[in-house]
Amino acid sequence: MKYVKLPKENLDAFVENLKTHGKVYGPVKIGEYYSFQEINNSKEMSLEYSRTMIPPKKFFLKLKERLFTFNEEKGEYKETLEEEKIVVFGIHPCDINALKLMDKIYIDETPDKYYKMRRENAVIVGYGCHPDEYCFCHSLGTNYAADGFDLFLHELKDGFFVRVGSDKGNAIVSEISELIKDVEGSDIEEFRAAERKREKEYTLELNIRGITDMLALAYESEVWKEYADKCFGCGSCNLVCPTCRCYDVVDNVNLNLKSGERLRRLDSCMLRKHGLVAGGLNFRPTRIERLRNRFNCKGSLREDTLNCVGCGRCTVYCPSQIDYVEVLKKVRGEL
Ligand code: SF4
Ligand code: SF4
Fold first, then answer.
1. Mean pLDDT value across residues 206-228
2. Is the pLDDT of residue 302 over 80?
3. In what order do the strands lie in the sheet with 64-71?
């Protein structure tokens, strides 16, 4: 890994350079929420943000997209892959780790050309954060991004300690050589001290040791009924989760039965119709089953990684104030 320093006064010039790599998106405050929006300069960003409501997965897995159109009479089949280049500035470590999990699924395991193309067309600029009372990423080891980014900025008093994580990142750093400096011993010490301080800022803990077993053993637990009675079945927890990725595919065929389109849209396992299959059978007809399924999915292992990065969004944005960590503590018998 290569390390350089970006002085604070050069941040805007750095963002200007990034614009040559695509549309730049950064965290912007909208009312009381944060959202990744297109920005023109660094002053439009709120880099001190806690979390965006919708995670950066929105750039790679669209809420709804047309995959192709067809017209048999004209012998046409058109795919609708767009080639937009983007830069996503200010992604926190938990969200970078969530993208790494998505990459395993959508690039390594079952390659998805739409997802892969968007990932290849994106520059990822990470940004160091401070936990609030809902963050438990340190319990999951996702509070630090060791890789999965092109550049990662850690704030120092007079600049940013920049980790260069890819060839793409290296090329950008070469282009802005007049804006950056070599790191000095004092910068390294400041970076280390800030990381030590940050480790101590976490107030929420979740014991994940053996969580898969704990969930399996709690299959018949009353916990599911207790929380299912509160759950509205709205699906917000899926929408805001950086690792939820279920989608549905719908064919819209025109009345002539010769032309139409295929759409893909994100789905939610918390919605009643998610389990509805041909013949009207619903394999998860009750809220208890849907809630339990979501927790089991998040608590299952993909290789050695859980399907949760501890971002806290599902707790923060649940309209029924169902606390994700509290549920799992009850599952473990700790509460
Ligand atoms: S399950 Fe909740 S805390 Fe875990 S990654 Fe998803 S939204 Fe974040
Ligand atoms: S956000 Fe809360 S209320 Fe809505 S489905 Fe998820 S757990 Fe239920």
1. 95
2. no
3. 76-79, 64-71, 259-266, 247-253
The protein residue whose alpha carbon is closest to atom 7 in ligand 1 is 241
**String of b and e for 301-315 (b: at least 16 CB within 10 Å)?**
eeeebbbbbbbbbbb
How are beta strands 86-91 and 122-127 bridged, if at all?
parallel
What letter represents residue 7's amino acid?
Answer: P
Give the whole-angstrom CA distance, residue 136 versus residue 94.
10
Whole-model pTM: value is 0.96
- Which residues approach ligand 2 with their CB closer than 6 A? 231-237, 270, 318-320, 322
- Please name the residues in contact with 129: beta carbons below 8 A apart, sequence gap of 6 or more: 49, 50, 92, 93
Q: How confident is the model at residue 157 (pLDDT cuts 50, 70, 90)?
A: very high
Grade residue 117 by pLDDT with cuts at 50, 70 and 90.
very high
> CA 65: distance to chain centroid?
19
Closest protein CA for atom 7 of ligand 2: 231
Backbone angles phi, psi at 259, to 5 degrees: -140, 165
Mean pLDDT of 106-112: 95
Distance 295 CA to ligand 2 centre (A): 12
**Nearest by Cα to 74 from 262, 264, 256:** 256
**In whole angstroms, what is the distance from residue 267 CA to residue 276 CA?**
12
Q: What CA–CA distance (Å, rounded) separates 70 from 88?
A: 33
- For residue 274, the CA-to-ligand 2 centroid distance in Å is 14
Domain limits, the chain: 2-200, 211-331
β pairing state of 64-71 and 259-266: antiparallel
Ligand 1 centroid to residue 10 C-alpha, Å: 35
Return d(Cα 314, Cα 238) in angstroms, integer: 8
34 lines ligand 1 (CB under 6 A): no
User: How far, in Å, is the centroid of ligand 2 from the Cα of 233?
Assistant: 5
Structural element, H or E, at residue 301 = strand 301-302
- Ligand 1 centre to CA of 308 (Å) is 5
The encoded tokens of residue 190 equal 């400041």
Specify the pLDDT at position 54: 98
Q: Which residues pair with 36 in a beta bridge?
A: 27
